[in-house]
Design goal:
Blueprint lengths: L1 E4 L8 E5 L2 E9 L4 E10 L5 E11 L4 H23 L14 H15 L10 H14 L5 H9 L3 H13 L10 H4 L1 E2 H8 L1
Antiparallel strand pairs: 1-2, 2-3, 3-4, 3-6, 4-5
Helix pairs in contact: 3-5, 4-5
Length: about 200
């Protein structure tokens, strides 16, 4: 695997090659850590250039050197092997339809039921449960997460709203006015500001 261009790249923060496969990595800094969006292209089952994989991953590193090392390791150990395995799949590279809001809500309910059943909750406070559920719901871009969480926890919506407010006041959830998109700055901009 070769890294062709580092943080000075115009189109992506990182670009890698592995045989005929090519990956770009766009990195965004968050309140805690960073987030990478990977796009990997290469030959499909017919030998034609195609998008093999598009995936987002959280990153732990908080320095340029640490980030470069972490991204390189993820590329070699996970991203390129997964893209290679998918390259022979018929239909790879076809545009995948986005999940509807209704489907995302159903997925959220399934995951809530799995992770927040009574057998998994012995050591988790209601406050912490609510924070986890709220993060999951906002990640899935659900339009009324407080109501869904309240229905699931069998409490009033105002109770969930109060728990979310407490978490925001303590810095465990972003403030409503900050929104996730406003919180993100490109990793390059963060490094430039620190220089």
């Amino acid at each position: 695997m070769n890294q062709e261009i580092s943080l000075k790249a115009l189109a992506a923060d990182f670009q890698f090659t592995d045989g005929p496969m090519y990956a770009t990595v766009d990195v965004k800094s968050l309140r805690k850590g960073a987030f990478a969006t990977w796009v990997v292209t290469g030959p499909n089952d017919q030998g034609l250039p195609s998008i093999l994989l598009m995936i987002s991953t959280a990153l732990r590193a908080d320095t340029e050197l640490g980030l470069e090392s972490e991204v390189r390791q993820l590329a070699a150990k996970h991203v390129f092997p997964l893209a290679s395995a998918l390259s022979a799949t018929p239909g790879v590279g076809e545009r995948v339809p986005l999940m509807t809001l209704e489907r995302r809500s159903q997925v959220f309910l399934h995951h809530m039921s799995h992770h927040f059943s009574s057998s998994h909750l012995e050591s988790m406070t209601l406050q912490l449960q609510t924070e986890c559920l709220f993060r999951m719901a906002t990640y899935l871009e659900l339009t009324n997460p407080l109501k869904l969480i309240a229905q699931f926890q069998k409490v009033a919506t105002s109770t969930v709203e109060k728990r979310v407010s407490i978490a925001r006041a303590k810095g465990r959830l972003p403030k409503a006015s900050e929104g996730r998109v406003k919180h993100e700055a490109t990793w390059r901009n963060k490094i430039a500001q620190e220089s």
